[in-house]
Predict the 3D structure of the following.
Amino acid sequence: MKTIIVSAKKTKSQNNVWAVAITGDRYPRAHCKSAYAAMRYMFVLKKQTGVNISENCLTRLSHEIASLKKDSPAAPAAEEPSDIARYHAFKEKHPEALYMRRIGDEYAIFEGDAFAAISILGKYRMLRKDEQTVTFPADYLDIILPKLVRAGKKIAIDG
């Protein structure tokens, strides 16, 4: 019975190169520079060929990946700019365009653009008074976008 196997080989630079092969094949199917890439390729190969992965190789790669994660320092999380900050940054570059941002299952239009959108779309849209934001379901984009464009607005959609 054929299985997918992996072996690590040291290179001159003392880094591991992971060879992924199917037992019985003369040559490896791939040489990967990282354990993670080798693991990914093993699952791709399994999907393509239907051949099972060796449990020993899977365990070995899992341990190697876990040890690499422990050794590497965690990167500091980059702070995301708020939606309003993105709006202001965009408006500095493109003051004539109406800025829309997708947030989850909704689109939001902020501050001055919100009031312009209400004047075009009517009052049936939701306005959050505390943030001066108009929101509408993402499904309505096909209805709202043509109305704004027909009114002569340039539209920029973020997200």
Observations:
- The beta strands are 3-10, 16-22, 30-32, 52-53, 97-103, 106-110, 126-128, 133-137, 154-158.
- The radius of gyration is 26 Å.
- The chain has two domains: 3-71, 83-158.
